[in-house]
Write a structure and sequence with these properties.
GO terms for molecular function: isomerase activity. InterPro entries: IolE/XylAMocC-like, Xyl_isomerase-like_sf, Xyl_isomerase-like_TIM-brl. It comes from Terribacillus halophilus. The chain has an eight-stranded parallel beta barrel, surrounded by five helices. Helices cover 39% and strands 15% of the residues. The protein is an alpha/beta fold and 277 residues long.
C-alpha cells in the first residue's frame, strides 16, 4: 500500500508567509506545503506575490532546501469575467521554480463558454511549466457541483487537467459518494482533507465563514470522509483546516501539528485496512 502523504495548505495558516509556513510544516511532520502566491484580493488577506517579492522567493527556496519539503500546489487561479490567462504566468513560473506540481483553479463566472475557453488556456499555459490545473468545485462559486466540474473536464479534454475535491465543498454541495464511481482515476492528483459540522448552513455568509475560519479536525465533524476516500485513488492529502480561534489560541505550529495528528489517526483507524490503490 502506498504511503500516506500530507501537505499543509496555506489557508490553514494563511498569516504565515511561505518561508515560515514551510518551516512549520516540516517541524510538524508534513511531506509538502501548498502555498498561495496568487492573492485573491480579499479584505485582510496577506499578499504573497513571490514573483514580485524576490526576497521572499529566495527565502522560500532556502526553507524548502533546508527542510527537504516539496511544494505540492499553488493557488488560486480563478476564472472570473474579463480575466486574462496570461495574468497568472508569473505565478506559474514561480511555481515551477519551486518545484510545484499542481495549480488549483475554480470558476466564478456564469459564462460557461468563456469559462471553458479560459480553462483550456490555463492548461496550455501550465503545460509550459510542467504543471497541472486542478479544477475545484466550490458551493458558492459558479462551478459549484461535482457534476459541473466533471462536465467541464470532459469538454476541455486536457491531459494536464485534474479534479480536486475538497471534503468540505463535497459535503456542502450535497454530493453523493456513489457519484465518484466511474470518474477517471487519472484525474485525481490531490485531495483537500478537512472536516466540518454535519449541518449545512442555510446562508452563503455562514458557509463562507465556516469554510475560511471554522473547519474541524479530521473525524471531529460530520463529513463522510471515509466513504469519500474509499472511492478515489490514494493521492496526497492537503490539509486545509482553517480555524481562526484555535490557531490564535494554540499558535500556528501547535495547531497544524494537531491537524496532522487528527488526519493520521483517522486514516489509521478507518482506512489502513482498505485497499486504496
Amino acid at each position: 500500500m502506498l504511503k500516506d502523504q500530507f501537505s499543509l495548505a496555506h489557508l490553514t495558516a494563511l498569516a504565515c508567509p511561505p518561508p515560515a509556513l514551510t518551516y512549520i510544516a516540516a517541524r510538524a511532520g508534513f511531506d509538502f506545503v501548498s502555498i498561495r502566491p496568487i492573492c485573491m484580493g480579499l479584505r485582510d488577506e496577506p499578499d504573497y506575490d513571490l514573483a514580485a517579492n524576490r526576497q521572499m522567493l529566495r527565502q522560500t527556496k532556502a526553507a524548502l532546501w533546508e527542510t527537504g519539503l516539496q511544494v505540492l500546489d499553488i493557488e488560486l487561479a480563478r476564472i472570473v469575467d474579463g480575466m486574462n490567462t496570461k495574468q497568472y504566468e508569473p505565478a506559474f513560473e514561480v511555481g515551477a521554480e519551486l518545484g510545484a506540481r499542481h495549480v488549483l483553479c475554480s470558476v466564478w463566472t456564469d459564462d460557461a463558454v468563456f469559462a471553458n475557453e479560459r480553462f483550456i488556456e490555463l492548461c496550455e499555459l501550465a503545460r509550459m511549466y510542467q504543471l497541472t490545473i486542478e479544477l475545484e468545485f466550490v458551493p458558492v462559486a459558479s462551478v459549484a457541483t461535482l457534476k459541473q466540474a466533471v462536465s467541464m473536464l470532459h469538454i476541455a479534454a486536457q491531459e494536464n487537467a485534474g479534479l480536486m475535491i475538497d471534503a468540505h465543498h463535497f459535503h456542502r454541495s450535497k454530493e453523493n459518494v456513489s457519484d465518484l464511481k466511474g470518474i477517471p482515476a487519472e484525474w485525481f492528483h490531490m485531495f483537500h482533507l478537512c472536516d466540518a459540522v454535519k449541518e449545512i448552513p442555510r446562508t452563503k455568509e455562514k458557509m463562507i465563514k465556516i469554510m475560511r475560519e471554522e473547519r474541524l479536525y479530521i473525524g471531529e465533524g460530520g463529513i463522510p470522509i471515509k466513504e469519500i476516500l474509499q472511492e478515489i485513488p490514494k493521492v496526497p492529502y492537503s490539509l486545509e483546516i482553517p480555524h481562526l480561534q484555535r490557531s490564535e489560541r494554540l499558535g500556528f505550529e501547535e495547531y497544524v501539528k494537531r491537524c496532522l495528528q487528527s488526519a493520521k489517526e483517522y486514516i489509521s483507524l478507518n482506512l489502513d485496512d482498505v485497499n486504496i490503490y
